[in-house]
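Database export, one record per block. Field names are fixed; values are copied verbatim from the stored entry.
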Amino acid sequence: MPDEDGHPSREEMSLLTVLNALSDPLRYAVVGALLREPEGTARTCASFNLPVSKSTITHHFRILREAGLVQQVDRGNSRAATLRRADLDQRFPGLLDLIGANL
């Protein structure tokens, strides 16, 4: 069962859900941007400069969070997202390498 913020545990992560989340070019770009950052880097949703409304940004990050791709933490009036590298590498070995090679 996901935690109170909607983050699934590693065991609950589904490959189909992860691939569905990555099927959107904006979400794929967010994951790619986080992959290029040093491990553990947290970025606010606004820092990605996505060309969509705030509500659509919220939607995209909810999909990423519920798939288990990112961990989000509240920071006052914004949320910071961190790529769940260790969980993804353990649950789906090689997936992040494939994404990184195809950016």
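Remark 1: The first strand starts at residue 43 and ends at 44.
Remark 2: The mean pLDDT is 93.
End of record.
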